[in-house]
Inverse folding.
């Protein structure tokens, strides 16, 4: 038996144990709650600097007002990068949401990752682990957005897990 083959047999059970351990900490989809509603957003360009030239790389401030099942507001920043081909770009953003969700007050952070590949779009928005405060401590989940013309809607899939 080669060394590499033996290493594989050691790492495979370890990887499986880690995966099972992580999966056990995530709530079942049946336990997730949904908060839905609309939001208004204001994006404003921030000054170019040595890191963001305002053309191929940019930076914007985010201000949102949420209505519906999530009542509140958020502030954040977005970094953008443009590709050399029309319709190709990416962005990352972090925003702090403050408000009331299902009768619970507090704040939590959202992390965005968006990519356009020659017009094909993908977006992931995740609640930053352990970012919940006050009555939202322990919140986990993610958000999907629907933009229809000028109307912006959200679906926040979450659970209020016990804080660690």
């Amino acid at each position: 038996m080669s060394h590499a083959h033996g290493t594989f047999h050691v790492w495979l059970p370890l990887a499986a144990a880690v995966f099972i351990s992580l999966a056990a900490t995530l709530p079942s989809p049946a336990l997730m709650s949904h908060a839905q509603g609309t939001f208004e957003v204001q994006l404003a360009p921030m000054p170019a600097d040595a890191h963001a030239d305002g053309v191929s790389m940019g930076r914007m401030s985010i201000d949102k007002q949420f209505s519906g099942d999530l009542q509140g507001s958020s502030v954040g920043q977005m970094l953008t990068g443009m590709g050399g081909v029309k319709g190709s770009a990416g962005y990352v953003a972090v925003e702090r949401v403050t408000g009331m969700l299902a009768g619970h007050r507090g704040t939590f952070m959202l992390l965005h990752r968006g990519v356009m590949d020659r017009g094909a779009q993908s977006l992931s928005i995740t609640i930053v682990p352990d970012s919940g405060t006050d009555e939202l401590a322990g919140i986990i989940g993610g958000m999907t957005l629907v933009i229809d013309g000028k109307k912006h809607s959200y679906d926040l899939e979450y659970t209020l897990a016990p804080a660690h």
Notes: The longest strand covers residues 104-117. The domain at 34-160 is CATH 2.40.350.10 (AOC barrel-like). The beta strands are 33-45, 57-68, 70-82, 89-101, 104-117, 120-127, 139-148, 151-160. The first helix runs from residue 3 to 25.
